[in-house]
Amino acid sequence: MTVRVHQPREDAEFAFILARADVPVLAYFHGVWPKAVAACKEMEPLVREVADAYQGRLIVVRADIARCPGPVRRYGVTGAPSFVLIDRGEATAAGSGPMARTALGAFLDAHL
């Protein structure tokens, strides 16, 4: 069974996923502090839907901001939830805050 959404537990695992990616990566950064929890929980089903809908065109990575501080700094993530589209290690697009399915789909379609 293929992993739909990768969940790295540390910076090195995040870097490993990026290094092995042969398609762009959608990095979804989530947080567990009180102000971020509700918005991030709201995004969880959407992140799984995107992983299914864009399978083969995109790899989805769900990264905890506290566990993966390196990518947070590298890609300029300042809050949660945040999305960064990464191609060959470089950010090509970014968005933050909760998004509707149509908005996230439009974001991806515009940059893939």
UniProtKB/TrEMBL annotation:
Family matches, as Pfam families: Thioredoxin
InterPro entries: Thioredoxin-like_sf, Thioredoxin_domain
Domain Thioredoxin residues, every copy: 10-109
Originating species: Streptomyces yaizuensis
CDD domains, per database record: TRX_family
Designated name of the protein: Thioredoxin domain-containing protein
Cross-referenced Gene3D superfamilies: Glutaredoxin (3.40.30.10)
